[in-house]
Amino acid sequence: MRNFRTTVSAIAIGLALVVTAPMPVAAESLAGSYLAGRSAAGSNDYDIAAQYFATALAKDPDNFDLMDSTALAYLALGDIERGIPIAKMMAAKEYRSAAARMLVTAGLIDEGNYAELAQQEIQTDGINPWVDGLVKAWALIGADDVDAAMTQFDNITDDAGMKGVVFYHKALAYATLGDYAAAEALFAKGAPGGAARTRRGVVARVEILSQLGRNDDAIKLMEQTFNGASDLELDILISKLKADETLPFTLAPTARAGLAEVFFTFAALLRSEQAGDYYTLLYARVARYLRPDHMDALLMTAALLEGLGQNKLAIAEYRSVSADDPAYHVAELGRADALRRLDKADQAIEVLEQLTRSHGDLAVVYSTLADTLRSQEEGQAAIAAYSKAVELTDSDDPRVWALHFSRGIAYSQEGDLAAAEADFRTALATNPEQPQVLNYLGYSLVEENRELDEALDMIERAVAASPDSGFIVDSLGWVYYRLGRYEEAVIQMERAVELEAVDPVVNDHLGDVYWAVGRKREAQFQWKRALSFIQFQQTTTDVEPDRIRRKIEVGLDVVLKEEGADPLNVANDL
Questions:
Q1: How many CA atoms lie within 13 A of 262 on its CB side?
Q2: How far is Cα 105 from Cα 71, in angstroms, rounded to an integer?
Q3: Where in the sequence is the signal peptide annotated (predicted)?
Q4: How far apart are CA 82 and CA 90, in angstroms?
Q5: Pseudo-torsion of CA 91, 97, 100, 105, nearest 10°?
Q6: Residue 107 and residue 335: Cα distance in Å, rounded?
């Protein structure tokens, strides 16, 4: 896929919104509106950006930069209808931009004008050659020029990096035309690349096999591919296949749906290549516009918006999923997450509690509710929800360790250390080398000042698995400190501070270790740094500002004596 990675960079350059510039106090002028739009775009606030750019464009309607910025903002916002006229004006003036080409393409598809769409040249400054090539092939399908369409698909496969994607779309095109045998022949050929092996690719082939009367083969394919993993949509497909029903072909029943799949395919590729949420969003938006019932595109769009900090827009996407859709619970889980990101945890909990009533057989509903409750320090309610999730999860499920680990943390936060340790050890029995569990249990034992040799072994294994985790390295330093191995503790604590420079706990620990080896001035400096990284009067189970202030005032050895703890063997000040 090296060639695709090169194209990702080109796409990013072609679609980039100009950002920077602070928001002006007033934006009545052309320049003010433009700068305000740039600032909003830089903050991913596409609604505000579109408003300001549109205002500026109204004052300077022939300005290419303004037209392109406005078109991009509408595209990112998902307001394709308002972006299309601007893109058409740009095309009429021969102003070329990738965003405008996407919008013009969407407009022609919406009009059903496949003949004109098929005549568009594949330009180096179009969307990108592969998208343009697939769009042309599907447009020819829509224009009923099947031979030309298949020739076009074959021409694109000259690029080795895209063969899998093109074979996948050619197979879909055959299925759209009702030639399921030809479609299955392509799938069976095992084209290079992973498009046919994605979830959507497998579902497409399952539907094609069912159309060919091969339900048993379809069931076998699902069992081999998903290996027991399932969800509501897959369960429905399996039950229909076992009932000997013929599945309809839904992946691309029309040329328009096939064109939507082109944009979704590239959105998925961009996302897999970590090209950036913004660029991926543009493709997902077009897929959603062309096929509003494209659930994967909807969920991807919402997730991308969350990643871009546009949680209100994400919520609007999630809310559009009907309660009878198999993906409803996925959308509601996403909506709850977006609400939590907006600091509306109470509303998120309401959404999740409603899900326990409508989808109470799903462990993920209870575990997500438990996570949210725990974040709000509702420990007992969180424990109850985790327990329900554990009850709904098979004991041999490889993911069950995470439930025991999370419930163990909740028990620990509630002060039930015995129950916490039991859950942590159950998690380790399932996943013996899981670094988070090893670290948490090991650190807990260190804090309780017991089983220190076992704690050291656990934390050393955790560090070996996650050597760049500052918190895990901190745990190793802390167990060395508790064992009186102060010089070794210094090495680990200094490394931990390098990895987590502004964490108050890590800085506080380094101060204690410095004090233990006689580096008292450096210890006081670290304690003062720790104080600077916590909110005024903040007190948690991990860091206590008053205790740190007392250490600065009288030293660690006096504080330990006041607390009735064992004294340190403190070296002379260096």
A1: 27
A2: 13
A3: 1-27
A4: 14
A5: 80
A6: 30
Do residues 103 and 90 lie in contact, with contact meaning Cβ atoms separated by under 8 Å? no
How many other CB atoms sit within 10 Å of the CB of residue 274? 10
Closest by Cα among 250, 266, 251 to 102: 266
Question: What is the spatial distance between Cα 546 and Cα 69, in angstroms, rounded to a whole number?
Answer: 53
Burial class (CB in 10 A: 0-12, 13-18, 19+), 271: buried
CB 129 within 8 A of CB 166: no
Cβ within 8 Å of residue 443, ≥6 positions away = 455, 459, 475, 478, 479
Helix (H) or strand (E) holding 371: helix 363-375
User: What pLDDT score does 416 carry?
Assistant: 96
Number of residues assigned to the chain:
574
Which tens digit of pLDDT belongs to each residue from 512-558? 999 999 999 999 999 999 999 986 445 455 778 999 999 999 999 99
Whether 125 has a pLDDT exceeding 70, the answer reads no
Closest CA to 269 of 192, 318, 334, 198: 198
Residue-wise pLDDT for 408-452, tens only, equals 999 999 999 999 999 999 999 999 999 999 999 999 998 888 898
pLDDT at site 535: 66
DSSP sequence for 156-204: HTTSGGGHHHHHHHHHHHHHHTT-HHHHHHHHHHT-SSSGGGSHHHHHH
Are the beta carbons of 279 and 270 closer than 8 angstroms? yes
Q: Would you say 168 and 262 are in contact if contact means Cβ atoms under 8 Å apart?
A: no
- pTM attached to this predicted model: 0.85
pLDDT of residue 315 exceeding 80: yes
**In this structure, are residues 400 and 393 in contact, taking their beta carbons and an 8 Å threshold?**
yes
Structural domains in the chain, CATH included, are 1-111 (1.25.40), 469-574 (1.25.40.10)
Q: What pLDDT, on a 0 to 100 scale, did the predictor assign at position 309?
A: 95
- Separation CA 189–CA 205 (nearest Å): 12
> What are the backbone dihedrals phi and psi of residue 300, each rounded to the nearest 5 degrees, phi first?
-65, -45
pLDDT, tens only, 325-360 = 999 999 999 999 999 999 999 999 999 999 999 999
